[in-house]
Specification:
The chain contains eight helices and eleven strands. The chain is α/β, with parallel strands linked by helices. A seven-stranded parallel sheet has the order 3-2-1-4-5-7-10, sandwiched between helices. It has a two-stranded parallel ribbon with strand order 6-11. A two-stranded parallel ribbon has the order 8-9. Helix 3 packs parallel to helix 4 and helix 6 packs parallel to helix 8.
Amino acid sequence: MNEKSIISLLGCGWLGFPLATCLISRGYDVKTSTTSTEKLDILTGAGIDSYLVQFSGGAPAPDLKKILDAGTLIITIPPGRKAPGGFDSYRQMIQTVCKQVPASAISRIVFISSTSVYPDTNTTLDEDADIAPATESGKLMAETEALLALLPVKVIILRLAGLIGPQRMPGKFFSGKTKIPNGLAPVNLIHRDDVIGVVQRLIENEDASGIYNACAPSHPTRNEFYTLAAQKEDLTLPDFTLEKNHWKIVASKRVEKELGFKFEFPSLMQFLRNYQG
């Protein structure tokens, strides 16, 4: 099998699993990794070539030879303080990738990053904007982007806005809370199906390179969006302070103009109105 025709996904969870099945349906040979034996059985049962890969800050780094026997590597694992090993395990994962990729067949990496690397500048930010992350996870994303950029392969950075979609509806985010600040600030979110569509375009476009933002083109206020979200799920409505401080609007300039991508869910408010529960 030609390695260039194989796509490997490091991480096959809420985003990675439907992405893998989408790519398989489009004729790609796909490999995935998971950190649990239970999930390994599920993935294998679904006909996905999968490998158990575990990272731990205190354990030896795993051998990624099998998962890196591919042309394209997509890193979908998000950093999480609650994940086993927390941020230390994530750092070990990236360090292991950076060490083992140069000797592998990988020629292209798509790294799923986050728009949390951008500061709140009270302006619209596109891919040319400077980054200045304020959170620990945002700083880890920026650190990872910089490390991957040093590799001798093509690296595509996809910075995602907040994710919504099946099993991740936003009604519970602020339900029942009171005096929530910044109620008039715009939201930056994207549906999972649109993320999968963008990744598919990036893979199919041989000229794709560099940094891309992925965020729905509509930006309702926090008060508008999360109040309607709670209503649609019959939850206690949140109470926002109607002020606009410390905000940003993330623009997906390159995705729309260069890739010609059309969002399936361009209007976040319409997405909520159509939600059936």
